[in-house]
Amino acid sequence: MVFLKSPNQNEVSMNNFSQWHNFLKFFLFLLLIIFTEPKDAVSSTNKTMHHVRSFNKSDYEGANKNWSVTFDEKGYTYFGNDIGLVEFDGVSWNLYPSHNGLMIRCVKSFRNRVYSGGYRELGYWERNETGSLTYTSLTGQIEEHLSKNEEFWDIAVLDDKIYFRSFTGVYIYAPDDGFEVLNVYGFISHSCVVDNNYLMSINDKGIFKIEENKILPVLESGFFRKNNIVFIKKTKETGVYLLATESHGIFRYYTETGATKPWAAEHTGFFMRNKIDKAIRSPKGDMILGTIMNGVMILDKEGNLRHHINVDSGLQSNTVHALASDKTGNIWVVSDKGIDFVSFPSPQSYVSFNHDEMGAVYSAALFEDYVYMGTNQGLFRRPWKTLNQLFTLVPGTERQVWDCRVVDDKLFVGHNSGTFLIDKNHHIKRISSRAGASSLTRVPSNYDHLIQSTFNQLVLYKKENQHWNAVTTVAGFDDLINSVAFDHLGNLWASHPYRGIYRIRLNDRLDSVIQLNYHGQNTHFWQKGNSIRVFKVDNRIVLTNGEQIHTYDDLNDSIIPYDFLNEKLGEYSSSYLIVRGKSNHYWFMNKKGIALFNIYGGSLEKVKEFPITLFESDLIPRRENLTPVTEKSAILCLENGYAILDASTKDAGEWITEENLTLRKAYSSNDSGETRIISPDAEKITTSFANNNLSLVYSFPMYSSEELKYQYILEGLMQEWSEPIETPSFTISRIPPGKYLIKVRAVNNWQRYSDVHETMLTVIPPFYQSGIAFIIYALFVFSLYIFVRYIIRRKVRMQEKHKWEEKEQEMIRLRNKKLQADLSFKSREIATTALSMAKKNESLLEIKRKLSSQKEKLGTRYPDRYFNEIIRKIDEGVTGDDEWKVFEHNFNQAHETFLHNLKDEYPDLTPNDLRLCAFLRINLASKEIASLLGISVRGVENHRYRLRKKLNLSAEEDLAEFIFTFQGKVEDKSGQHTINDDK
User: ∠834-840-842 over CA atoms, to 5°?
Assistant: First the structure.
């Protein structure tokens, strides 16, 4: 578990802890060395280390002094502190101030409640809907029983009842029935539940139990008169108790005789000097004893010392107030200086060691009980088995060391300035000055010769009289080479760190190149950004390019994929480093991990795998290296030290797969930063679109020394898990409306994952995206469709009507044109008729005048009877009503209801007035009208004058214009009335 370090924590204390921790890690691996194997073998042991992680008031923001500790069902840990209740969920700390502002002496978790007690105060804490604890005081129910100095020191649970214990009484609380108070006449030094009985140790009397609210004796003898009991445990032996006293050690108590026998007698003196204050049993059966003056003692079932943990070994204080052991056997130590967490890891399969004094390690070797480290600062060494000793620089080896390799009981050191040789007595001398010496390989056909690569040449070494000397450089080749190896045909393969690889054929003297083949960027196995490196696996040359493994096909003289290894290795076919170990074991390294394989003939078996995340930030890029130590162990070179890998140890980190996170806090917020608290107990989270920023804080109450990180994925929005972070606190911003599944998990360095915590999330869409809104949108769209359809249809109808009206208007126009033509024709015809009538009348009148003139001249000679008859006929011809009716009929056909409408509007008009109007309508002159009416022009003018009055015309208005423009209602053939303007 990752413990979050407060920025205010004492750095000096942590540095001391780090050095001590480093020492213990190294000690663990040295303990794994056994002597039945070679002297540098690594094995497992039943001895274990402990790690101490300390917390003080700057971490939990309470007081330094703590009094008690308890665990709840979720694995949260609670502490009674001087100023309140301290809660730790595995990730974060919370302080809840006490009800009365005083210290909390005792705490006990039971059924989602944390019961607490202190000075004249007891009650319980419950989690509210926001995930915080709220306090309920029970003091009011028993206040009358409290003495003025009553203080509660212990809480126990039995048969669903809570037992609050002070020094002088026990207050038994049943949540449904209230309190029963038992006063004890004596001083209660200790209480506990043993075999379903609530036991109390009463000073100077013995051990008693409470049964049916009665106090009954269990153990009584003179032993209890001088011993203050702090621990009671019934053993598997009938009638035997294990009792721990404050000042006299631990005893086995025999009930039948009252006899006692010291237990773990060799530690009695220690207990007498340092006083036992608290004692508990671990899940494994060990006895854990907290002392007043010297920390914690852990004894096994036989009373043997397993650990003594005090200030010197990591605790903040030697005075222990309370102890608790979790289900994994880790211990919480509560003291007056803070809180300490003590873990006991199993033997680890890897341990890293920081050694800043020697820089980045490029190569390592075990040689004659010393471990040598080739670094960028020089060659360093230290006795392999010596504890807590720093590495020292080998004089004369300052600057870069590239390679350390043991050959024939000699250590060859490839250095920037040449090659050094170290013998069994650790004497050192330079045997070559060729700069940049790195890889060294033995010539298969001649074991007395070695070939070494340097910055620009190949160096040949020869062994003479048990001494190795540089003989010459290989002629015909000069290039930068970082590794060399011979194949089974005697070809020397040399890899360039950037350009590719060479296949070299040497002459028989090994001092000259007779054939050179280059394989680089022109080859099919070249991979941009990945260097090609050469190694040997099962006596066969293999080439790595970071993608897959290739080998040399000598039958076809070509480089081909090594199908056997590629298939069997799986993802490790992409390895860029291969190192042969002992007994056909090979270490492979790629971007994902380091794995040990057993390869022999046609078989391949993976022994163990180490995720690269264990060392990823500490490896030297493109210069990764490791040195096998035993068949299943190796030294891994790192930038700031080294690590020891032990493939024989069971995988670490498996415990995480059985654990699950808990949602601790949940908030939603809007873009303005306003937050809303969400209940962390809710199986489903629902939030509005306005508050679509979600913050989640999780707890992971599993405590260990292992580093953890956390990831989440929002299914429905994300395709992959988030990048791991150190604290399980996630903020997801601007989540679109919809339903999602939030998954959160913990991951350790071994790439093992915890159970996934799942929470359903619903982001309610805004109103404009809600179902009702979509119904409204649908109705609106439908209405719009209907409206548009109506508009279109109306427009179409209007267009059709317009076309019809245009057609009708055209028809009317044509009809009116025809009618106008007819009207014009009829008007001309009427006018012609009227003129004809006028001329006829003029002629008749002229005849009448002449006849009258002749009558005057002839007198009686022209008989009156004939004269009068002719005059009468002439007068009938002039005034003929029939002609007028014909004229009126034709006039009405031309001007339709003009006279009728004129009569309707002006009912005072006489027939003669109407005739005058008709004549004016057809635009006849006064003389012509006079002829038609048979009157004088003067008479016509007088008649016009009278007509103007009847028509109410002013002096400025023209009578002829009024008659000519008078409008009347005309009914067409369709029955519709239109306004007709007869002109």
Answer: 100
Residue with tokens 């929470």: 759
Instruction: Give the range among 26-35, 376-385, 662-671 with minimum mean pLDDT.
Output: 26-35
**What is the strand order of the sheet 585-589 is part of?**
577-580, 585-589, 593-600, 603-611
d(CA 221, CA 227): 11
Residue 971's pLDDT band (boundaries 50, 70, 90)? very low
Q: Comparing C-alpha atoms, which of 646, 869, 653 is closest to residue 753? A: 653
State the residue for tokens 């840990």: 77
Question: What whole-number distance in Å separates Cα of residue 806 and Cα of residue 587?
Answer: 99
Rounded distance between C-alpha atoms, residue 651 and residue 344, angstroms? 16
723 burial type by CB count under 10 A (0-12 exposed, 13-18 middle, 19+ buried) = exposed
Counting beta carbons within 10 angstroms of the beta carbon of residue 888, is it exposed (0 to 12), middle (13 to 18) or buried (19 or more)?
middle
C-alpha to C-alpha distance for 796 and 800, rounded to whole angstroms = 6
> Residue 262: pLDDT above 50?
yes
Beta pairing, strands 467-473 & 483-486:
unpaired
Residue of 351, 258, 288 whose CA lies nearest to 28? 351
Domain positions in the chain are 655-767, 772-981
Beta strands 684-688; 757-764: pairing state: parallel
Cα separation, 966 vs 955, whole angstroms:
18
| 150 three-state secondary structure | coil
Model confidence at 33: pLDDT above 50: no
List own/partner pairs for 13-22 with CB under 8 A and 24 or more apart: 13/54, 17/52, 17/54, 17/314, 20/313, 20/314, 21/51, 22/353, 22/354
Backbone φ and ψ of 747, nearest 5°? -135, 140
Nearest to 930 by CA among 851, 838, 858: 838
In this structure, are residues 700 and 712 in contact, taking their beta carbons and an 8 Å threshold?
no
Averaged over 131-151, what is the pLDDT?
94
**Distance of alpha carbon 88 from alpha carbon 79, whole angstroms:** 8
Determine phi and psi for 223, rounding to 5 degrees. Answer: -55, -35
For 310-439, where are the E strands, in sequence order?
320-325, 331-335, 338-343, 350-354, 361-367, 370-375, 379-383, 392-393, 401-407, 410-415, 418-422, 428-432
d(CA 718, CA 820): 85
Maximum Cα interatomic distance, the chain, rounded to a whole number of Å:
203
Rounded Cα–Cα distance for residues 502 and 516 (Å):
7
pLDDT digits (tens, 9 = 90+) for 649-661: 876 567 787 788 8
Give the Cα separation of 896 and 971 in Å (integer). Answer: 9
Alpha carbon distance 397, 374 (integer Å): 9
| Selection from 363, 345, 474, 418 nearest residue 25 by Cα | 345
Provide the pLDDT confidence category of residue 26 given band limits of 50, 70 and 90: very low
Pick the CATH number of 655-767 from 3.40.50.300, 3.40.50.10490, 3.90.70.10, 2.60.40.10: 2.60.40.10
Q: Give the span between the Cα atoms of 106 and 119, in whole angstroms.
A: 10
d(CA 749, CA 708): 7
Element spanning 166, H or E: strand 161-166
Measured CA to CA in angstroms, residue 547 lies from 393, 539, 573 at distances of 39, 22, 7
Q: Is 23 exposed, middle or buried (0-12, 13-18, 19+ CB in 10 A)?
A: middle
How far apart are alpha carbons 404 and 579 in whole angstroms?
14
Could you give the 3-state DSSP secondary structure of residue 920?
A: helix
- DSSP secondary structure, 467-518, as one string: EEEEEEEPBT-----SEEEE-TTSPEEEEETTTEEEEEEE-TTSSBEEEEEE
Distance of alpha carbon 139 from alpha carbon 564, whole angstroms: 77
